[in-house]
């Protein structure tokens, strides 16, 4: 085999290989387009079927108005009220001081510092 025959064989082989590649690309493109067309057709059919079935289901809906009469049930819970409990003024002051955390002036007959301030800072005659 001579050099020119070899060059011609390589060129023919490359051309055949290139043609096969080109044909494969075209076939692949055609397959993709065919698949896309099938998918679009299936989507149209499915959309039409869904629209038809939903329209049918909506047409079968019946509106009903019903008046419900039921009795309200109440449960009365008795909670004890300590309204009869009475404390002296001094005891109420001590309870309020304990709840608020204020210190009292025990020498002032149970009067708190704030109550003196309310009286203008003057002690009562018992103080």
Structure, described:
With 127 residues, this protein is mainly alpha-helical. The chain has two domains: 1-62; 89-118, no CATH class. The protein has three helices and no strands. It has helices at residues 3-59, 89-100, 113-118. The model has no long low-confidence stretch (mean pLDDT 79).
Short précis:
With 127 residues, the protein is an all-alpha fold. The chain is built from three helices and no strands.
Please specify the SSE layout and strand pairing.
Elements: H1 3-59, H2 89-100, H3 113-118
**Low-confidence segments:** none
- Total domains, how many? 2
Please state the overall shape, judged from the principal axes of the Cα atoms.
elongated
What's the count of strands? 0
How are helices and strands ordered from N to C?
HHH
Mean pLDDT: 79
Give the radius of gyration: 51 Å
Distinct helical segment count: 3
The structural class is: mainly alpha
Helix content: 55-70%
Quaternary state, please?
A: single chain
Q: How would a crystallographer describe the biggest sheet?
A: none
**Strand portion, in percent?**
under 5%
How far is the N terminus from the C terminus? 139 Å
